[in-house]
Specification:
Length: 162
Amino acid sequence: MAGNYDGIDSGTMKFEADIRIKATPQAIWDAVADPETWPGWTKAVYRVKKLSEGPLGVGSRLRIIIWCVIPVHLYATITDFAPGQGLTMEGKALIARLSRYYALKPEDGHTRVIVGGEATGLLAPLIWWIGQALSQEIVHDMMVKVEGSAPRSQEERRCHQP
């Protein structure tokens, strides 16, 4: 479900985090498939606005703001959308091209949640660092939301909101 990345050059920097959550893929999908609610359950995302009309799916455009030392705006278009399985989006953040994916895989009564992406361009190393930190926070926060586990302390987070 990591999407099709034909044409991304050899300077691509990949990042990924995963976690096993004791829940069905559908229970997790309900959170993933409603991006405007992401700031309510993960501190990794500051704000999300859907920029296109209609239901979420391939072609939907989003503006996602994260806060990691500075506010970073990601303008993304969903390029792959498989209900209950995952989604992929591609866009730009700072002066780098970026893809992000969310994949859900059932495993022995749990769901493996994989959040990651790829960055290319002049600031790809910075986007990689931010992307890796946020991916780790997102999978952990998703587990907290779905299972009701203990949240991470502010000191454990690598990126902080103002």
